[in-house]
Amino acid sequence: MSMSFFIHLFSAHKRFTELLTKDEKDLPNNRVPMERILTLPELKSNPFRKRICNVFSTSEYKDGGLTFEDFLDLLSAFSDSATLEIKSHYAFRIFDFDDDGTLDCGDLEKLVNCLTGETDDTRLTPEEMRQLINNILEESDIDKDGTVNLSEFQHVISRSPDFVSSFKIVL
Amino acid sequence: MSTVSESVVGSTRSLSAAKRHKSIRKNSRRIYSAYQDNQGSSDDQDKEDERADSNDPEEMFQNIQYQKEIIANIRTRPWPMRRKLKVLKQAREIVLKYEGRLTRTRGYQTAGADLLKKLSRVLYNILVLFIPWEVRIKKIESHFGSGVASYFIFLRWLFGINIVLTIMTGAFIVLPELLAGAPFGTTRSKTIPKEHLASAQDLDTIWSLGGYLQYSVLFYGYYGRLRKIGSAGYRLPLAYFLVGMAVFAYSFIVLLRKMAKNSRMSLASASDENFTFCWRVFCAWDYLIGNPEAAESKGAAIVNNIREAIVEEQEKKKDTSLAVLISLRILANILVLLSLAGSIYIIYFVVDRSQKLEQEKPELTLWEKNEVSVVVSLITMIAPSAFELVAQLEMYHPRTSLRFQLARVLVLYLGNLYSLIIALLDKVNSMSSAIPLSPGNWSESSSFLATISQPEGNSLSTLVSEISVSEHRNITIATIATVLDVRNTSTSGSGVISNQTSLFEKNIRSQQDPCWETYVGQEMLKLSIIDMIFTVASILLIDFIRGLVVRYLSDCCCWDLESKFPEYGEFKIAENVLHLIYNQGMIWMGAFFSPCLPAFNVLKLIGLMYLRSWAVLTCNVPHQQVFRASRSNNFYVAMLLFMLFLCMLPTIFAIVRYRPSQHCGPFSGQEKIYDIISETVANDFPLWFSKVMSYVTSPVVVLPALLLLFMLIYYLQAIARSLKFTNNQLRIQLQTERTEDKKKVFQLAAARLQAPEADKKPDQQESDVTSQEASIHTPSPRRNGSITDFNSPVHRGNSIHTITQSASRAELSRGGVAGSVRSPAVTILPKHRPPEHTPSRSDTQQFSQSGRPPPPFLGGPSGSCRSKSYHHMACSPPARYSDHIQSDPLYRKTLRSIHPMEAAGIISAQSYGGRRGHTTRYVIVNEHDPRKKLLRSATRIPRHFLMEEPAEILELYPRNIKRYAPRSAHHQPHPHRSHPSQQHLSEEEEEEEDGKGKRRISLGKAHRPRSLSDLHQPAHFYIGDRGERHRSKDSRGRYGVHEEDEEEDGEEEIDWGDLEPHSRSQSNVRGADSVLVRNRRHIHSPGRPCPSPVRSMHMESHVKPKTRPKLEPPLTESDSASLASSSDQQNSSTDQYIQVIHNKDHYLKSEARQGKQAKKKSKASFDLNVTESKDLVYSNV
């Protein structure tokens, strides 16, 4: 493998081990709880940080904890070299708040709320929210089943000029 | 036979039931954790596969190929790392293990290719390490998002261009001059005049680029006119000219290439579909943002954006007080135009003034010397902000206003540069015309000539006379005559004399310093320097100081500095990029006259990079209206190209129009700068070359060449137009397809509504199903002749009876006597049909009928084959529909209990062996079942699915599940089961009547795929992909014999060939959504944009004629429905998947054949075909 690959790997590992406490470091295959992952500045200000952790977590407790492997998965999905397909796949999963495989109205509402924040002045009114969701479904829901599924989502996303360039996390 | 199979079924039932139970659990887990990988099962299966591998080299090769494909594509799979690693490892192992068995050379080849790949990768990675400022840009990107980063990437790119320009000018002009040219002080053009020597080292002289700087390699004037310099005889003047042109040429090429690359990348977004809301929500967040402040502002921007979109949507139809708005906009535009005109006037005025000052005053102050560049820089700094203020008047949408702003700023910059260069050239004009030698190149010069010739005539100055004498050689008699004329006229005018003295004074000066090229170069360099100073100052003052003030004084101030008035400086990407472009324009403009300008620009850009990045990181907040980075990239480049063109014009104009200075520079003494080329050609090239050149440049050659070029342009344009046209056509087609898709969905909804009704008569439905199956069976004998035509009615038959009959007969007929046996069933069936029809079912049935076009005109095997492929498509819709229709809870429950039956059926089928064997296997393949393992040992195909499918299923499951969830939760675990089992139930009943186990099996087979397709269309589709791939390979490698036998096979293959690349490229598009599929195709394979539509149309056409004759009696509703369905096919991915299955069958068949008797020739293949078609039919249903 190449130099830069290892450099990236090392830096990722370094960043990861910084998140571990001392006694955890001795354990093999340890899991960093979500709270600590979220202290990474790259994720701290991301409105979807919790979802990101949950999506990439392989923890059986659904607590969003990440092993180093999961962490690498995260980084590779958000890396420069990931394809649009991978990125859109994970974006879909991130937006799919209830993990049911489709973006329904509830998911979309949560998604918009994540983007706008929860404060009263930024939050959309129910009326606005309704209209927004209707419009989104109007545009993307090709089979008119009231939800956006993965293929519809990828269809929309693949047209977006700057999704690939913005769906990145750089350590 | 039948009894035996029964018993087998019975014994195996319990076993398989237990297994089923497990698999249910497994599946349920999969579903609930919808996206979790199911690596466990796939891994097991992989191992199985490995074992199952036979020694057949062809298979092996395919397998290896397949594994390699996996290895190559592993990165594009959204799997977790662990799974990727496992799969990769396995694939590698397999490849390593078996590759040795194939030819050795192949192994070496691949090894070499691998090595090469690795090497290139290492090299690339090393190169990446040397990309300047990568880390810095990444850091900025991670703080401020991709928009801000795009500015720095653009800056870096410009930096790269300037480096190359610097190398070009440095290596070919500056260095040779320094090394081999005449040293400083040896010639007049290289010495500082005595009266300037004293002040040559003064700071303000240096500052205004006079003194030593003026007489240095920085400027045109310093370069010697010797044709060859140094011992090697370097032709500096020629090099100077060529490099000057090469600078432009190189810039053009680089820009165009960049543009082409960008536009290729943004091709996907070229369509004017817009998903405003989706993008604003789905793609709003820039995941790179890691800085809380940036995140905050981004969040605010997103909220604004979304609100804006909503408001826009709400008020789309409303028109707000137009009159006021229009008047405001007109006002704003007038203001902008005024300020543009004002800025142009000011620049012109300043240049003019400086000219006058130079003439009148011997000593200029610092301000007077730098007036021009300072004013220009000031204008470039202030005007954009003014424009921004004005733009607020207009109340445009932010995006539009940004565009307006950009356009205005660009015009302003261009206006500045142009007015400057025009003013300069004007000055040059007067300067060069001040010398008496220019013989009437332009009319104004004559007046000057008058004044100048006077002193000459009086021989007041030896210097002047010297010059004039030297020049006289060049002057023709005619010009002398004019000079004399002029002299006469001037002497007559006595008033001129007073002027003469002052002019003469000036003339002397200009004759010592007559280098207008140097002057232009000086001005450009000065402008560049002052621009840099202003940039630095503005960064420090406007951004940094302001940032400091806002941050530290906000506590002790009565209002909130951070959010109200001064705020933090915004990083205005667009304006800054424009500034870069402007800067680059200056460089291009001046590069010819000041060879070191690119070098200076390199330094400037480096400084700018560090300063800007520092400023951005410390004291800026990103602009709220982020200019879309990726899309704007090309916009930037396009503007740069525009700038390059416009900046090249003045230089070219000066080169062509003006006479080079007589006493300085490499072209001194020439009539025109470009004369150097013709001179070189004439003097230094062999005679033949100049002859050739003269021929080439003669109108005889040039005109045709020009014509050819025009023709070429026209041709290319025509092609582009036609491509655009087809593009539009495709888009329209796509849209209609989408609407049709929608229609289909509505139909579907209607069907759903009717579903409850249907539930009440499950038996009938089942009978319908079985009838369909029966119809499916019939095809097997089809290739025997036209008999197949009669089969079509069979499909219509709904009654169980007819079904069983036909089915059983089909079995029998397989022996080869099909034709005669068949006919009775045919005749009987149609009668039954009308009464049994249930409303909900009706469409699907009709679809299926229409779909099966037992082709009346296509006799013989070829006909059947073709019909197969088409009807697969046609049949697919029923599958889809049926899933909706039959998703009632009743079935679900029954299904489970009955599962075992199915399994038993399969097993029994296996026991039959022979032809039977592979069909069953096929069924098994389609199921995502652990049971596969048992049977797989015989076939190799499943492995592909094993490896691939689970993931796909996982992805896609949720959708199905969702749909079914409300109805029967516990069924979810394995939805695909439901249908078959149901079928079996009915079959069982039937069997009791019939007592024919065989039939049942066949039914089971037939249904299996259908159920799959119902529930998992996407998965199927994917399978299809795989199948295709196989098939294609197969057909190439192995099917040679086959093809000979059957033409239609070949045809099909062609179709496949068309599809193949698409399917490969689209393997990502797993969804059933047809539109998606389509789009992908078009986008991914621009080389072959039409195949799919063409193909689909093709199919349609085929289907239509076929169906019609058959359905003649009830041509009413069903016919239309069938037509609709067939047209629908185009859109739906189902067509693909169906075909896929078909292929798979082929594959299987071929496998089976190979296993059995590889050496059988045409006859065997014929047989094969028979079975194939039959299988196909099964799978379709």
TrEMBL record, chain A:
Domain EF-hand residue range list: 83-118, 128-163
Highest classification ranks of the organism: Eukaryota, Metazoa, Chordata, Craniata, Vertebrata
Keywords: Calcium, Magnesium, Metal-binding, Repeat
Molecular function terms from GO: calcium ion binding; magnesium ion binding
CDD domains membership: EFh
Protein name (record): EF-hand domain-containing protein
Keyword check for Magnesium: yes
TrEMBL record, chain B:
Subcellular location: Membrane
Domain of life (superkingdom): Eukaryota
Biased composition, class Basic and acidic residues, residue ranges: 1142-1154
Low complexity biased stretches: 1118-1133
One Pfam family cited in the UniProt record for this chain: TMC
Molecular function per GO: mechanosensitive monoatomic ion channel activity
Record-given protein name: Transmembrane channel-like protein
Spans through the membrane: 148-175, 206-224, 236-256, 330-351, 372-393, 405-425, 527-545, 585-603, 635-656, 692-716
Protein topology in the membrane: Multi-pass membrane protein
Ranges of Acidic residues composition bias in the record: 1043-1058
Record's compositionally biased regions (Basic residues): 18-29, 967-979, 997-1010
Biased composition annotated in UniProt, kind: Polar residues: 1-15, 767-791, 799-808
Location of region: Disordered: 1-58, 753-870, 967-1181
This protein's UniProt keywords: Membrane, Transmembrane, Transmembrane helix
Cellular component GO terms, alphabetical: plasma membrane
Signal sequence, renumbered to the chain: none
Presence of the UniProt keyword Membrane in the record: yes
Family: Belongs to the TMC family.
PANTHER family in the cross-refs: TRANSMEMBRANE CHANNEL-LIKE PROTEIN 3, TRANSMEMBRANE CHANNEL-RELATED
Lineage: Eukaryota, Metazoa, Chordata, Craniata, Vertebrata
Entry keyword annotation includes Membrane: yes
InterPro entries given in the database record: TMC (IPR038900), TMC_dom (IPR012496)
Every TMC domain range: 515-630
